[in-house]
Amino acid sequence: FHLTRYGINPRCVPPESAAQFLRSAHADAACSLHRNAEEAVRAATAAVGPDGLVVITGSVFLAGEVRPLLVGS
Hints:
By secondary structure, this protein is mainly alpha-helical. It is 48% helix and 5% strand.
């Protein structure tokens, strides 16, 4: 899991809390925390390679932020 947050939205779940939840549900869950969505997307795509699949979940705002990174502007 590559975890981040959308901007500075005060309603977001901190990535640290999401990692803690994931690890409590799945002790072997590998989680990495990223400062921003671009960093998280780049790390995830690098981890899966050219034939891999990256699934992005979160708000529509996060989807809008990462879309240009995946399909261009």
